[in-house]
């Protein structure tokens, strides 16, 4: 049974996360642009899930507005995200 404020896995809204479980802050050391996507690489400090210092990270973004894909890989974890607000321009 889900905890307070949670939604059962088979119900609408079950994929809504209401808590931040990690922060990734760091420096981008390289950028590669291919077509409509860009890949940022760098080193970061991670708190929460995958916590550590000087962790390599990769972020891939696809050009577009809400619905555009973002993939973050850090500390052996991969997060597939969807942009909900704003816009990525890749040139």
Characterization of this structure:
- This protein is mainly beta and 91 residues long.
- The protein contains no helices and five strands.
- A five-stranded antiparallel sheet has the order 1-2-3-4-5, with no helix packed on it.
- A hairpin with a 2-residue loop joins strand 4 (69-74) and strand 5 (77-82).
- It starts with 21 loop residues before the first strand and ends in a 9-residue tail after the last strand.
- The model has no long low-confidence stretch (mean pLDDT 87).
Write the layout of secondary structure elements.
Layout: E1 22-34, E2 37-48, E3 52-62, E4 69-74, E5 77-82
Antiparallel strand pairs: 1-2, 2-3, 3-4, 4-5
Mean pLDDT: 87
- Poorly predicted segments: none
Helix content: under 10%
Structural class call reads mainly beta
For the largest beta sheet, what order do the strands appear in spatially? 1-2-3-4-5
Following the backbone from N to C, one meets helices and strands in this order, namely: EEEEE
Feature tags:
mainly beta; 91 residues; five-stranded antiparallel β-sheet; single chain
Provide a brief overview of the structure.
The chain is built from no helices and five strands. The chain is an all-beta fold. The model has no long low-confidence stretch (mean pLDDT 87).
